[in-house]
């Protein structure tokens, strides 16, 4: 399958998961650190399924799984992988903290608007974009920024704090993606996605030694009904699938990690559409501030993102 289709499908899946995250953070699970721990824990679990796939294939006489091969790495790459895993947990925590303090259709695009620029600043010297992809990159980033900006009005202090935290998340995610691509291209996809979970597991162990955090984590889902737990688990499984798809696209040769991050603007389009529908039909679950001026700006953003998709497909 073409890498562009893989990433568009992955971002659609991630948009569903992110919108459910926003609902849970604002209405049900109120501690972002607790939510980040659960998400990181499930990411470790999902990747363990890939390890089981490898072990199954080896037990049946196959040399590798459909995702590649898993092997021991040199100490340098192990240390790098551990750092990437810890960085993932940090970025997730900052993302959910920002989400908790701001609107889903503003905070997430803000991260996506700054993250591609940071990534391209890190990678342009060894992975420059050609003319059509450069045009696409800036159109996608411009569309993302337009979606995230609300003209006029004053933002509450919590929104400003959420903005600063979101920028911290974008820096963390940018470093995570750049280093992940380096690991993928040096050690293969399976090594690049499995070994960093060791770092994530270490971060979880350290956090779990904190008694207040441990208590909040264990108590976080007890009050939820079976239906709500099922929705949450399903959402996180979808997020894991979208994450693996995104990482796989980054691991492919001749695919720019900066352009992949810029294409995340399509995820914000999905979020905008779903958040708007929920504001109209289910405002008790999720309410976004809408006005004709805001909608007009976001329509312009959709046009910019659409043009960006056209140029990237050339």
From TrEMBL:
Q: Coiled-coil intervals in this record? A: none
Q: What Gene3D superfamilies does the annotation carry?
A: 1.10.3730.20
Q: Keyword Membrane on this protein?
A: yes
- The UniProt record lists the keyword Transmembrane helix: yes
Xref: InterPro entries: EmrE-like
The domain of life for this entry's organism is Bacteria
TM segment ranges: 6-25, 32-56, 76-95, 107-126, 132-152, 164-183, 189-209, 230-249, 255-278, 290-312
Record key words, sorted? Membrane, Transmembrane, Transmembrane helix
Q: What is this protein called?
A: EamA domain-containing protein
Per the UniProt record, the source organism is Candidatus Komeilibacteria bacterium RIFCSPLOWO2_01_FULL_52_15
């Amino acid at each position: 399958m073409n890498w562009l289709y893989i990433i568009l499908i992955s971002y659609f899946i991630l948009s569903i998961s992110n919108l459910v995250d926003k609902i849970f953070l604002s209405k049900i699970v109120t501690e972002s650190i607790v939510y980040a721990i659960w998400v990181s824990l499930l990411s470790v679990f999902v990747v363990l399924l890939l390890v089981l796939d490898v072990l199954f294939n080896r037990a049946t006489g196959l040399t590798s799984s459909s995702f590649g091969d898993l092997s021991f790495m040199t100490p340098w790459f192990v240390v790098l992988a551990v750092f990437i895993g810890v960085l993932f947990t940090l970025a997730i925590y900052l993302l959910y903290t920002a989400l908790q303090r701001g609107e889903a259709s503003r905070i997430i695009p803000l991260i996506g608007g700054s993250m591609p620029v940071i990534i391209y600043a890190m990678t342009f010297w060894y992975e420059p974009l050609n003319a059509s992809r450069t045009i696409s990159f800036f159109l996608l980033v411009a569309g993302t920024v337009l979606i995230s900006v609300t003209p006029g009005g004053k933002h509450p202090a919590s929104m400003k704090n959420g903005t600063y935290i979101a920028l911290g998340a974008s820096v963390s995610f940018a470093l995570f993606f750049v280093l992940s691509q380096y690991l993928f291209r040096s050690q293969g996809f399976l090594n690049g996605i499995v070994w960093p979970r060791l770092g994530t597991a270490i971060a979880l162990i350290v956090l779990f030694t904190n008694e207040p955090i441990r208590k909040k984590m264990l108590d976080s889902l007890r009050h939820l009904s079976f239906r709500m737990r099922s929705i949450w688990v399903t959402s996180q499984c979808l997020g894991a699938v979208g994450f693996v798809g995104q990482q796989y696209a980054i691991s492919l040769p001749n695919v720019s990690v900066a352009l992949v991050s810029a294409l995340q603007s399509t995820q914000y389009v999905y979020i905008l559409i779903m958040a708007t529908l929920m504001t109209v039909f289910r405002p008790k679950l999720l309410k976004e501030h809408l006005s004709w001026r805001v909608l007009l700006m976001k329509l312009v953003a959709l046009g910019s993102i659409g043009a960006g998709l056209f140029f990237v497909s050339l």
